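Below is a filled-in request sheet from our internal design queue. Each sheet records the structural input a requester submitted and the sequence that came back. We keep these sheets so that new team members can see what a complete request looks like end to end.

REQUESTER: design group, bay 2
PRIORITY: normal
MODE: inverse folding
CHAIN LENGTH: 178
BACKBONE (tokenized):
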């Protein structure tokens, strides 16, 4: 079993981030830490409050943990990076960090108009929508729209089934976390 922990770039500036990395590294836990670096921590550009370029990956070395910075909008790149990190965790080699560079298309909350973003930034990132990029790659490989739609429906069913299974599962035994 492998645990996957998702967090935003802003979380890298709080103590719990470092405590989690340290514990996972010391105990060689099978964890993949995935940082969704969307360039903003709440209302502040991450670069204005963080001394390193890659707020999660650049700190991994302090915990002797491998890290990758990837294009979080490319589903194939994400798949490959996750496959490597999961294989590492399953082999007993401990945790890894994946820092996925992506973008938040909306404000931090429903009341956030995102006026702190530079003019045109959102438009540029919308051109790199992960689903649109994936569809374009499939089209390049002559995958038919009907096949894409069928796969989409199967994926939606897998997610719905997983949610139902999780909601109906008994509470985990504390010992299973070790």
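RETURNED SEQUENCE:
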């Amino acid at each position: 079993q492998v645990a996957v922990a998702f967090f935003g770039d802003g979380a890298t500036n709080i103590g719990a981030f470092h405590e989690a990395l340290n514990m996972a590294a010391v105990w060689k836990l099978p964890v993949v830490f995935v940082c969704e670096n969307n360039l903003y921590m709440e209302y502040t550009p991450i670069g204005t409050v963080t001394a390193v370029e890659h707020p999660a990956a650049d700190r991994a070395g302090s915990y002797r943990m491998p890290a990758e910075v990837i294009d979080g909008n490319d589903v194939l790149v994400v798949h490959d990076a996750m496959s490597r990190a999961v294989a590492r965790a399953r082999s007993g080699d401990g945790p890894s960090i994946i820092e996925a560079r992506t973008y938040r298309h909306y404000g931090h909350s429903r009341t956030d108009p995102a006026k702190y973003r530079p003019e045109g930034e959102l438009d540029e990132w919308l051109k790199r929508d992960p689903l649109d990029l994936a569809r374009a790659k499939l089209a390049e490989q002559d995958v038919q729209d009907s096949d894409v739609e069928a796969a989409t429906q199967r994926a939606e069913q897998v997610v719905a089934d997983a949610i139902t299974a999780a909601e109906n599962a008994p509470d985990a035994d504390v010992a299973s976390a070790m």
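SHEET NOTES:
- The two ends are 11 Å apart (CA to CA).
- The mean pLDDT is 95.
FILED BY: M.R.
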